[in-house]
Amino acid sequence: MNLHALRIFTKLAAMKSVTKAAEALSISQPAVTVQIRNLEKETGLKLIETEGRGIKLTKEGVFLVVHAESLFDMEKAIENKLIQLKHGELQELRISSTYLPANFLLPACLAKFKNDFPSVKVNLYCGNSNEVIENLLHFKSDIAFVVKEEWNNPDIKRDHLMDIDFWFIVPKGHKYDGKEVSLREIMSEPFLLREEGSSTREILFSLCKIHNVPIPNVGLQFHGLNESIHSVIAGYGTMLAPAPAVIDYLKRKEVGRVLVKDIEIRRPVYICSRKGDKQMITSLNKFVNFVKSYSTVEWN
Predict the structure, then answer these.
(1) Are 100 and 166 in contact (CB under 8 A)?
(2) How much is the pTM?
(3) DSSP string computed for 138-180
(4) Which of 179, 181, 195, 200 is most enclosed, with most CB atoms within 10 A?
(5) Residue 234 and residue 240: Cα distance in Å, rounded?
(6) What transmembrane ranges does the database entry give (predicted)?
């Protein structure tokens, strides 16, 4: 496949306009059109359709652009690794992490790492479990930290780091504040839910399924843990939250905790990498070992 034409196609897909794509690539509009026609001829598929003054992708075009972007992300990752191998050490560390490790486990660890390795440029991206894994698989990060129980991705290598407790919290003074109730009782309350793809949401729904309890009524849904906790502090909603994220609020009596009969929720934190990435350089292995040793001393 003509990679030059494929690269032009991905730019056209992003800009949705031949004119804008040509300007961005500093080539003529006819040149863009010719390359797309050649690509369609080569693949035997119609990849774009006219829509008003712009274009839209066909379903075949959508398929191709997703995989093309992944290919070019891999290309960038290879180039980056070659530069790092040439210098014999890690120049840049790209980390993807779910909210809990990013906000409560990694900051102190990364501060210590930067003191020991000041020349390494560290970038930390925070998202939900699905987003973090996608970043890793698409070579947009070198390593990932995820709180997740269920796994079905054969391309991910995971190393257990530690376990995290999850607690049910309610507004201070709620009728269940400080009490022990059944799972069915707590699930009858209006809940604050995280977005789809969140590990906390997955834990909650899995718990309902295992114990044959209806999923809770959605009072509010937030894209982010911190926003959800502050809604409880403000006086609305029940939620399931990781203990490290709420323990200080509990100590200050800004929220209340509910104990649920016969239910103890503990989930693992994993360090994740790509299975096929066998050329992980020495410095990245050093970082993994650094985090593991730090977690043993500081987080337990």
Answers:
(1) no
(2) 0.60
(3) TTS-SEEEEE-S----TTEEEEEEEEEEEEEEEETT-TTTT-E
(4) 200
(5) 16
(6) none
Q: Under 8 Å CB-to-CB from 23, ≥6 apart: which residues?
A: none
Amino acid at 15: M
What whole-number distance in Å separates Cα of residue 244 and Cα of residue 200? Answer: 13
Domains of the chain, first to last = 3-72 (1.10.10.10), 82-162+269-299 (3.40.190.10), 163-267 (3.40.190.290)
Residue with tokens 């793809």: 197
CB 77 within 8 A of CB 94: no
Q: What percent of the chain has pLDDT over 70?
A: 89
Query: What does the buried/exposed string (b/e) look like for 135-169 if buried means 16 or more CB atoms within 10 Å of the residue's CB?
Result: bbbbbbbbbbbbbbeeeeeeebebeebeebebbbb
